[in-house]
Amino acid sequence: MTVSFRYDPATTGLFAPARFEADVFDCEVEGRIPSDLNGAFYRIGPDHLYPPKFRDDANLFHGDGHVGMFRIANGHCDYRSRYVRTPRYLADRRARKQLFGNYRNPGTNDPAMRGVNGTVANTALVHNAGKLFALKEDSLPWEIDPNTLETRGTWDFHGRYLSKTFSAHPKIDPVTGDLLTFGYEATGDLSDDVFFYVIGRDGHVKRELRFKAPVVSMMHDMAVTRSHVIFNTCGFTTSKAWLASGKVHWGWDPQLPTWVGILPRGGSAKDLRWFRGPQRAAIHLLNAETIGDKVVVHAPVSDANPFPFFPQVDGSPWDPVKARTVLRRWTFDLGSDKDTWDEEILFPDIEGTLPRIDERFWSLPNRYGFVGYQDASRPFDARRAGGSPGRVTNSYARLDLQTGKVDSYFAGDTHSLSEVQFVPRRPGAAEGDGYLIGHAVNFADRCSELVIADATRLADGDLARVRLPFRAHPQVHGWWVDAADLPLADPA
Known about the structure:
With about 500 residues, this protein is mostly beta strands. The chain has a single domain (about 10-480), classed as YVTN repeat-like/Quinoprotein amine dehydrogenase (Methylamine Dehydrogenase, Chain H, 7 Propeller). It is about 5% helix and about 35% strand. The longest helix has 9 residues, at about 85-95. It is globular. The model is unreliable at about 1-10 (pLDDT under 50).
């Protein structure tokens, strides 16, 4: 392919677009893939078909959605990747250039794109009722064929999902099989409306609840206990004036407090209780538990803006020290009149923003968390890697929330890892008994690898690595689907 343009620094190096779709049958494997792994690991991320319209749009989340699938069965693996065919992707492809302006600011788009859905569907994945969805929180879900990765279009759950937006991180209730989700800015950009939904395992809406957020803010994730649902805001906010000035959708306001809403699962909007605390950024939430009158939330938290590509609204410089993100425990006392919460830092040396658990334990008491991080005690071979790519995520950690113990897997001295994924060894296995899998960039060989390790023996290193003969597209989040849970075709 002849590339007739240059990419901005925001889309070079580790995040450089691949700009191709792939099919690889029977991938090269180092080691041995466990025979009890049968399913698909899907990964999604931003991959610019065309570079940003404006050179100062350095937002890593603005690339076109690209889905990759590692289909694993019988010790073999096939790989496939496809762009999500959103209206933006199709319009740009027809025009052979970027028609959409700054991140989630329709006023900066080409005038011909007025009213065209500008979502890039590039953030996360989930499955429900035999369907696989690509998600970004400014749009409805986009249905993706779980085998071909063909884009089937947006999905509104049989016409009963009425929010214009859908969370990037819904939760599947392990007891009922229900999908719990929400949309913020639910009635359109700048609205303070939040719609919460319970969707049955049959794909039909069982419950809708509407409420107002105390501030228009990014609400990227949610947490669930057996008794409560937890929503949180952060310092990312927006306004009509901010968008009219041509900025990206979100700016960080250093004066904005954090709000956490706790809703009884069977309650109404009047039962939602908001707590107000100091400025924090809890973009992702690990898990939560209700213990008597207390709700305990575990989440990786920073004290200020964690993303340097979102500007400060007051023009102040981004602070990398306050951006440091570590796991904390928030405790809310529903039995008191106190409108804030207690905070405890749990693993001060493990900095990571993308936590996962054994997702069979969402809303249930759980012991282990998993996260990618940079272990500074491990070597990085800058010469073989072709020069230092900056910060790398070279390790996965298993965090024991009971004992404080950390077990670690090291990917190698020329590698950087994407978000970790836990896969149970078998149905009914104990919590944490299974595998950690994840995508790694091998800088020395300029290729991608899927690493597979035993989650109970991380120090032993790889069980297997699936090697691709190229560097795959960047990733935000990944999602494992067992072959029993989706209509997956045999990889052969």
